[in-house]
Amino acid sequence: MPHENDCTEFAGQQTNISLLSLVKEERGRSGRMRKKRLFDIVLSVFLIFLSLPLWVFISIAIRLDSKGSIVYQSMRIGRYERAFILYKFRTMRPNHDPTGITIGERDPRITRVGLVLRKLKLDELPQLLNLMRGEMSLVGPRPDVPGYNEVYKQHNPHHFNMKPGLTSPSSIYFMRESEMYPGLEDPRQQYVDRVIPGKVEMDREIINNGIRDDMQIILRTFIKLINSDKNE
Q: Cα–Cα distance between 152 and 222 in angstroms, integer?
């Protein structure tokens, strides 16, 4: 029969091994995050300079098409549930919608230029500024408006440990999300009951992504965009 001291020593060794594993895991995660942050900065700066003429053209088109600001600013919930201002090219006429849900691409609030920008996802170009500020990453769950935090945490308590991103597996799947809501009596209920749980489940594992994993998701996003335009 093992001596009591032997059992205690063995338990202590197991605890030390577990602590060492946790430390190594945390160091590995921190290293991945630093690399991803550098990757985000370099690529966002490159994309901003590359797309500057497009920014000018889009800004002029928005100004000529409808009244209102060129850039739309919206409060979103980011990592650790910290609120931040998200930037987008304005695609809708000024309105006050607390749900943040667009009902189809033919939503009457969407402008003519806005419809094109939404189809090509060019309205999200200004979010490269959020990327540079460290509020977002290239790959991460799409940030939502305030009011849905508890719904996300209900399906994944660690959801807000991830930095929100420009794209993610759920962004690819729900690229035409607004087309799910026309004709529904309560679009918000559909969003809470079906869309959010689906997004959370698809994005659950990207917290462990490295740069190579992120690049694959970015490539899948471009492929989905190209194929989507061909099918329309």
A: 27
Domain segments of the chain as ranges? 31-231
Q: Which whole number is the average pLDDT over 36-59?
A: 93
Higher pLDDT, 231 or 204: 204
Cα separation, 63 vs 113, in Å, equals 10
Distance CA(179)–CA(229), nearest Å, equals 15
pLDDT of residue 227: 82
187: CB partners within 8 A, 6+ apart: 99, 101, 103, 181
DSSP-assigned letter for residue 144: B
pLDDT of residue 226: 84
The closest alpha carbon to 137, from 37, 31, 34, belongs to: 37
Q: What is the mean pLDDT of residues 95-118?
A: 74
DSSP designation for 67: S
What's the per-residue H, E or C state across 91-129? CECCCCCCCCCCCCCCCCCECHHHHHHHHHCHHHCCHHH
Residues forming beta bridges with residue 92, ordered by sequence position: 110
Task: Encode burial over 132-159: b for 16+ CB neighbours within 10 A, e otherwise.
Answer: eeebbbbbbbbbbbeebeebbeeebeeb
Choose between 50 and 10: higher pLDDT: 50
Q: CA quadruple 127, 132, 138, 143: dihedral positive or negative?
A: negative
pLDDT at 10 over 50: no
Please give the average per-residue pLDDT across 12-20, as a whole number.
Answer: 55
